[in-house]
Amino acid sequence: MKLALFDCDGTLVDSAGLIHETMRRTFEKFGKPEPRFEDTKAIIGLSLDIAIARMQGRPHVEQQDIDMTAHYKSLFTVVRQDLDYREPLFAGIREMIDAISGREDLLIGAVTGKSRRGLKLVMKTHGFDQHFVVTRTADDCPSKPHPAMVTECCDETGMNARDAVVIGDAVYDMQMAKAAGAKAIGVAWGYASVDELIANGADAIAYHPNEILRHFS
Q1: Closest CA to 112 of 99, 128, 91
Q2: What do you get for the CA distance between the two ends of the chain, in Å?
Q3: What is the pLDDT of residues 112-140, one digit of tens each?
Q4: Which residue intervals of 115-160 are DSSP H helices?
Q5: Which helix (H) or strand (E) segment is 176 a member of?
Q6: Alpha-carbon distance 15 to 10, whole Å?
Q7: Gap between the Cα atoms of 22 and 78, Å rounded
Q8: Burial of 198 (0-12, 13-18, 19+ CB in 10 A)
């Protein structure tokens, strides 16, 4: 039995445009310089307050970061509706999830820096609710790369971390997997480079979602 733990943003769905536009409006509201798209992509995967602090060059969260986080959350749904963003699935993701979801030797979970509300929206939009048996979000655990998301999913499903595989596009996903004692598969279609993923502990790289299937054969 294996436990496949998928990151969401940059791994299952292409949400960079939505995240960046919401971040851009938030920084504008607080009189901050407009962030570059590259700066936004670099923090995707972190919990939101930590991400906002990092984008301003701070290692620790301050009160203004908390205030900006609250504003970002209040804007997110509005931006999604205004610009008709739907956080589309990357090509091949639906087929890959469908292919592994019926297997008796594999459980599927999600470990994400999204809020629980945000993850539920993605799952509902794409009809994935019934496939994911365990989830952990930024509302439940410390930010990646802390291993809690992985270890709590393992505890809930009765799995050992050595039988868990984290699939993600960010260096934080790779670091989290290694910290928890799990395997890590980096995906090449997300927001970090392949070299960055390998340098941060990826045991393998998938260049297309159908390549993930090989690791559970």
Answers
A1: 128
A2: 11
A3: 999 999 999 999 999 999 999 999 999 99
A4: 116-126, 148-157
A5: helix 171-180
A6: 7
A7: 9
A8: middle
37 neighbors 139 (Cβ within 8 angstroms): no
Tokens 């970002």 found at: 72
pLDDT band of residue 160 (cuts 50, 70, 90) is very high
pLDDT band at 196 (very low <50, low <70, confident <90, very high): very high
Numbers of helices and strands, H then E, in the chain: 10, 6
165 strand-pairing partners? 4, 183
- DSSP class of 115: -
Show the CA angle centred on residue 87, arms to residues 205 and 151, nearest 5°. 50
Strands (E), 73-214: 106-111, 134-136, 164-168, 183-187, 204-206
Q: What six digits make up the tokens of 111?
A: 């470990």
